[in-house]
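Thread amino acids onto this structure.
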């Protein structure tokens, strides 16, 4: 997927250059972009250094103050998201403790307590993401209006950066926690200690099979849930609004005063300046789910493809039947979104490397198979036989607190149990400390991450160098147009250097111009 993301972005640049040439947008950069009406209301004025015309002006200190305040609000909202994630973590700890406690006599509930807690926590996290996203969208819109941007492109870029910074944390914070932090902050052996508690409770631990299954469930619920909800709201809300306006107008319709076609068109939903923003944001968030966590949820690309097929038809229906005809604007690229996609592609390489090396059991299995299996099993061939015993450590059950002691079972009457970690046994001098196996596996994991990301980035650099941003045929046609334009302007054969009377006279007039000393004036 890391290679696919790079190929996608490289070939998108080529497709963008092709469309830019075909639609004659090569010289439509925003130097001549109109000033926003909200910016025109600023009373302070000064001449524009480019055009010489008087236009509104915002002092750099005033603009910097507004940007700092806006950034502070964004960071505050990011902290709110992290607080919500922490709240979901506390919910999981409490609910799992209640469902798994000795007072609960329902064996079915106790057996499926882990799965039920994971699913309900993911649903709560999905609702939190949606609610905070709506709240922050309103706040980001007000902040961007307050920053007084000169043009629409500056306004949209500022709004996009604010929204994506928040949505990145809002959508991916809980997934990053499950993938990289859960189970590693509080080990199973030291969880019984009073000093390693969260609000007096044991910290979260991964399932004995690891956190990968829980990460897959979390990804599936959040990604697919957001896709279903977005597709539902995109088609239902405009249809309801248009239907209500049409119903009210038809109630007032008479035989002489008909509900005309132009009135029906006017009652359709207006296309605002940020109408396409939601479409871009949805696709970029989905791009992040597909690329950054594909190692944990391999079906993510399939669901993304299925969603895009449905999304195309729903958007076509919405723009044709529920929206007014938009006013076309010239733009030669997708703006700041391309830079965001590049950053996500880089982060995807690192996240997949850490998921493979730290979240999954790939590295520990390979270390055991090719290093320790010979001594553990006494065989001459590398094997995974005996890996389960190798990956478990001993714990003295008498060291459990009363509130964390597991329920008694008839088949267990020993004093030791096993837990998933690489630590010294209770009888050792360094009891419950990481043993040599842990540090060996940790070193291999770190080496894998470094080699993996260096290899990917090297291949990506080579691919970017081999694939030109502009196709050769488009580049030739652009050079041809430049040649014809230069020939028409100078009135001469540019290739042979032959001069015409028009060009000679123009050069003579230019040579008669005297230099002006602006410093003296």
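Threaded sequence (521 positions):
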């Amino acid at each position: 997927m890391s290679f696919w993301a790079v190929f996608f972005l490289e070939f998108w640049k080529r497709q963008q250059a092709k469309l830019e040439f075909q639609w004659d947008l090569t010289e439509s950069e925003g130097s001549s972009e109109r000033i926003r009406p909200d910016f025109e209301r600023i009373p302070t004025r000064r001449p524009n250094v480019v055009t010489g015309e008087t236009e509104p002006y915002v002092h750099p200190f005033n603009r910097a103050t507004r940007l700092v305040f806006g950034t502070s609000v964004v960071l505050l909202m990011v902290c709110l998201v992290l607080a919500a994630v922490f709240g979901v973590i506390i919910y999981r700890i409490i609910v799992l403790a209640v469902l798994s406690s000795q007072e609960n006599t329902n064996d079915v509930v106790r057996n499926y307590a882990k799965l039920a807690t994971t699913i309900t926590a993911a649903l709560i996290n999905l609702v939190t993401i949606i609610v905070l996203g709506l709240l922050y969208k309103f706040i980001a819109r007000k902040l961007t209006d307050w920053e007084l941007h000169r043009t629409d492109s500056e306004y949209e870029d500022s709004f996009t950066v604010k929204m994506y910074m928040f949505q990145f944390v809002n959508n991916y914070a809980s997934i990053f926690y499950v993938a990289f932090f859960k189970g590693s902050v509080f080990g199973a052996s030291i969880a019984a200690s009073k000093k390693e508690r969260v609000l007096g409770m044991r910290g979260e631990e991964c399932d004995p099979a690891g956190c990968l299954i829980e990460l897959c469930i979390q990804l599936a619920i959040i990604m697919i849930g957001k896709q279903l909800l977005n597709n539902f709201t995109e088609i239902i809300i405009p249809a309801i609004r248009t239907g209500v306006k049409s119903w009210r107008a038809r109630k007032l319709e008479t035989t002489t005063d008909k509900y005309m076609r132009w009135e029906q068109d006017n009652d359709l939903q207006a296309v605002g300046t940020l109408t396409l923003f939601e479409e871009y944001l949805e696709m970029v968030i989905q791009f992040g789910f597909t690329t950054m966590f594909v190692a944990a949820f391999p079906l993510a690309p399939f669901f993304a493809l299925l969603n895009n097929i449905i999304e195309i038809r729903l958007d076509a229906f919405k723009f044709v039947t529920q929206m007014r005809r938009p006013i076309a604007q010239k733009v030669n690229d997708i703006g700041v979104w391309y830079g965001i996609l590049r950053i996500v592609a880089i982060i995807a390489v690192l996240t997949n490397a850490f998921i493979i090396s730290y979240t999954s059991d790939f590295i520990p299995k390979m270390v055991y198979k090719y290093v320790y299996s010979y001594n553990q099993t006494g065989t001459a061939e590398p094997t995974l036989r005996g890996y389960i015993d190798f990956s478990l450590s001993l714990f003295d059950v008498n060291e459990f607190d009363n509130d964390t002691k597991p329920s008694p079972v008839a088949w267990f009457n020993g004093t030791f149990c096993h837990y998933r970690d690489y630590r010294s046994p209770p009888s050792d001098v360094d009891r419950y400390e990481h043993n040599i196996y842990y540090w060996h596996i940790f070193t291999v994991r770190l080496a894998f991450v470094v080699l993996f990301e260096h290899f990917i980035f090297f291949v990506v650099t080579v691919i970017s160098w081999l694939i030109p941003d502009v196709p050769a045929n488009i580049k030739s046609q652009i050079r041809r147009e430049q040649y014809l334009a230069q020939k028409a302007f100078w009135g001469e054969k540019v290739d042979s250097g032959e001069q015409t009377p028009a060009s000679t006279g123009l050069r003579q007039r230019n040579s008669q111009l005297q230099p002006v000393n602006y410093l003296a004036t």
